[in-house]
Task: inverse folding
């Protein structure tokens, strides 16, 4: 009797809870749990054959002396410094270009988005071919223009640029976010600024950018964090496992090698923890920098 | 008036250049995939091969068991995509019915989870799947569909369900309809756009997935299309026409879905850019 009444009163909540449960349990088991388990695993020696052995902070003590780890951190930072701003500015510029209400800009949006839906492996193999120093189409195109192209994935410096280059094509998500942000700007505002005597560029810088700054910030943070995910397959395939001469040995590439090739799961997990710390620090710096930048705009405008 | 026409022509030219740049890698891959395999590669720019060798695509199927790998991918996709749509829409619907306070927290939590790169969690996740006996089982690749695959998909559904006025849901509830009936009868028909978008994005996600099968699938009979392509690359690592043909074979289904959904997709792009109403 009382159970029936309880059910009548709460059935709605129970139903909503049962709808949410798979999602929340899934996130707990597949995302949050593994994220936290990484911290515990980092304190052990584990090769997935014998049971894990307690190692305390030994893994972390070993990290600073690991030369490849230091190279991987430096490479990851350099990648973020080069690729993230390029991708953000590229997405913003393309969104400005393709913002016009015209069928042509709809086609343009679809074409720009196309490389983003490509399978990672296919995209990496296509670029491995494009960047081939002798037979690759990029250097042959440069030769038509009279330019002697670099030897790309053979030479460390141009290898780093090559990976950044192939990632600049996959900016469809950024394009969508920038289009949405630009769409939320009242079209009369920039016109007003133009009447007040500013040119197109200054009305964009002083009126539009401050309005869409929050969206750009989210994009900046997300792209920084996910750069640790997106450069793995390029490093594995185009860099052939982090080469040449460790030039594309990014953190995820080294973590993958340590865990799944050398079966040193504990040590690899300690690098994952280091990756969290590095990401957190970069985000903090980016936040501080953009905060000042944003405030400065407020004063000038 | 004249300067305006010049401005529009200039804009069109810039858009054309941008389109050409973004199509260039694909165009190069296609022209390379049609080259004769035995002949030495040209040392100069060759936009279109002569003779055109379509047979390279057939050769891929002779070198690796491409039909089996494609079938495995089709199995994964045809289970994971509908399951994703159902579970993501259920979670999104439940969130849309919660009081603002709880909904806000769940949105923030979802956004936080979206920020976790796969590379940060793949070691514990791999060990978890191994302990759960999911190694070398296609099911392991489909498991994330039970949580709607990505918090982003759940949020897309949430936004779609929130466009329905609250009174509509309340009226149905007063009529005695339960949450599942309202989800199926009122929510989903209103969220057709979100269903299409999530289905396309989930298809792209599962078809393209490379790292997860790389870690979880061990024997060739379980390989997906991406792993098959990796096998082809390791067997024929300098045979560029064949590698490009194989790469394009994995690209074709995604591009086909993208082009088929293009109409809806472009509308979606239009809806996120309200400036088009000018």
Result:
């Amino acid at each position: 009797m009382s159970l029936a009444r309880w059910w009548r009163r709460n059935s709605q909540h129970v139903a909503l809870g049962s709808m949410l449960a798979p999602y929340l349990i899934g996130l707990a088991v597949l995302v949050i749990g593994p994220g936290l388990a990484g911290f515990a695993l980092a304190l052990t020696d584990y090769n997935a054959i014998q049971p894990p052995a307690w190692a305390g902070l030994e893994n972390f003590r070993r990290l600073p002396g690991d030369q490849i780890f230091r190279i991987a951190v430096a490479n990851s930072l350099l990648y973020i410094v080069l690729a993230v701003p390029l991708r953000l500015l590229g997405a913003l510029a393309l969104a400005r270009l393709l913002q016009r209400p015209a069928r042509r800009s709809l086609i343009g949006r679809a074409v720009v988005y196309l490389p983003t839906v490509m399978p990672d492996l296919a995209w990496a193999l296509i670029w491995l071919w494009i960047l081939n120093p002798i037979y690759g189409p990029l250097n042959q195109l440069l030769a038509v223009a009279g330019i002697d192209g670099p030897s790309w994935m053979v030479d460390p410096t141009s290898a780093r640029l090559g990976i950044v280059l192939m990632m600049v094509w996959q900016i469809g998500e950024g394009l969508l976010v920038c289009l949405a942000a630009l769409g939320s700007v009242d079209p009369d505002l920039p016109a007003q600024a133009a009447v007040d005597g500013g040119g197109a560029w200054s009305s964009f810088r002083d009126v539009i950018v401050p309005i869409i700054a929050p969206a750009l910030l989210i994009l900046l943070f997300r792209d920084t964090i996910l750069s640790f995910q997106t450069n793995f397959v390029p490093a594995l395939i185009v860099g052939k496992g982090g080469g040449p001469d460790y030039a594309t040995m990014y953190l995820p590439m080294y973590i993958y090698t340590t865990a799944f090739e050398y079966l040193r799961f504990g040590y690899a997990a300690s690098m994952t923890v280091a990756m969290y710390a590095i990401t957190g620090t970069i985000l903090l710096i980016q936040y501080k920098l953009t905060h000042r930048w944003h405030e400065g705009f407020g004063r000038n405008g | 008036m004249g300067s305006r026409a010049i401005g529009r022509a200039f804009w069109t030219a810039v858009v054309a250049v941008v389109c050409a740049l973004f199509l260039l890698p694909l165009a190069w891959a296609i022209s390379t995939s049609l080259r004769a395999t035995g002949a030495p590669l040209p040392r100069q720019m060759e936009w279109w091969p002569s003779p055109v060798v379509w047979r390279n695509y057939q050769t891929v199927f002779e070198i690796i068991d491409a039909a089996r790998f494609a079938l495995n991918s089709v199995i994964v996709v045809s289970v994971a995509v509908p399951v994703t749509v159902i579970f993501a829409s259920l979670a999104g619907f439940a969130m849309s019915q919660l009081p603002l306070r709880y909904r806000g927290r769940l949105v923030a939590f979802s956004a936080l989870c979206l920020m976790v790169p796969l590379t940060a969690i793949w070691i514990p996740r791999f060990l978890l799947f191994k302990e759960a006996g999911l190694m070398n089982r296609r099911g392991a690749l489909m498991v994330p569909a039970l949580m709607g695959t990505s918090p982003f998909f759940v949020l897309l559904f949430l936004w779609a369900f929130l466009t329905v006025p609250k009174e509509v849901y309340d009226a149905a509830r007063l009529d005695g309809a339960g949450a599942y009936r309202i989800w199926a009868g009122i929510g989903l028909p209103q969220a057709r756009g979100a269903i299409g978008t999530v289905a396309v994005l989930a298809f792209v996600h599962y078809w393209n997935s490379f790292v997860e099968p790389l870690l979880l699938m061990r024997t060739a009979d379980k390989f997906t299309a991406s792993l098959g392509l990796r096998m082809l690359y390791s067997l024929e690592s300098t045979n560029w026409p064949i590698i490009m043909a194989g790469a394009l074979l994995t690209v074709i289904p995604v591009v086909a879905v993208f082009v088929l959904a293009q109409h809806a997709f472009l509308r979606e792009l239009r809806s996120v850019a309200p400036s088009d109403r000018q």
Q: What stands out?
A: The CA atoms of residues 35 and 49 of chain B lie 6 Å apart. Chain B has 14 helices and no strands. Residues 272-278 of chain B have pLDDT under 50 and may be disordered.
